């Protein structure tokens, strides 16, 4: 069965059977994603197969203190620094290890780059759940915070440079 392109979470998407192996991420999708949509707290994007969600990520606008940020990101920036928070990213266990997480991350980065044309966003920030997630994000170009190794950032200048090299 065909997997959809990432799209905004809608009422017709089925969440019940989603299982990524991290109960925190499973529960959030099933109990908070739609509430956060309604309140404007975050936006969730999903990939589906027959309307069953098989992967998702969530974005929210935020800011981060200079103290939490590597030098190249805080240079010439106000305190706090405007960021896009990658609040959640998960793939169903049945599809893990197939590059879908990286594809979802790439979509989140592209959407963030588009949003940065309308509002100031210096970087994408993620709070990794554990060491394994940290390794994933580091492999995708994110840099750990000097204060908290599980907080990582990807400057949009790096994204723009890589997009320009294509």
TrEMBL record:
From the UniProt record, which GO molecular function terms apply? acyltransferase activity, transferring groups other than amino-acyl groups
Among InterPro entries, the record links this protein to:
Acyl_CoA_acyltransferase, GNAT_dom
Q: Give me the reactions it catalyses.
A: glycyl-tRNA(Gly) + acetyl-CoA = N-acetylglycyl-tRNA(Gly) + CoA + H(+)
Report the leader peptide range. Answer: none
Keywords of the record, alphabetical order, are:
Acyltransferase, Repressor, Toxin-antitoxin system, Transferase
Domain N-acetyltransferase: from-to ranges: 1-166
Q: Taxonomically, which superkingdom? A: Bacteria
Return the protein name.
FIG001353: Acetyltransferase
């Amino acid at each position: 069965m065909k997997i959809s392109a990432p799209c905004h979470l809608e009422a017709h998407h089925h969440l019940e059977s989603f299982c990524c192996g991290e109960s925190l991420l499973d529960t959030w999708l099933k109990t908070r994603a739609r509430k956060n949509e309604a309140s404007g707290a975050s936006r969730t994007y999903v990939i589906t197969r027959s309307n069953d969600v098989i992967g998702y990520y969530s974005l929210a606008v935020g800011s981060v203190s200079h103290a939490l940020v590597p030098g190249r990101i805080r240079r010439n920036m106000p305190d706090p620094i405007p960021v896009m928070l990658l609040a959640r990213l998960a793939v169903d266990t049945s599809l893990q290890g197939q590059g879908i997480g990286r594809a979802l991350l790439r979509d989140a980065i592209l959407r963030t780059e588009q949003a940065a044309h309308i509002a100031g966003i210096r970087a994408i920030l993620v709070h990794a759940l554990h060491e394994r997630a940290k390794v994933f994000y580091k492999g995708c170009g994110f840099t750990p915070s000097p204060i908290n190794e599980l907080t990582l950032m990807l400057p949009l200048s790096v994204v723009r440079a890589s997009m320009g090299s294509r």
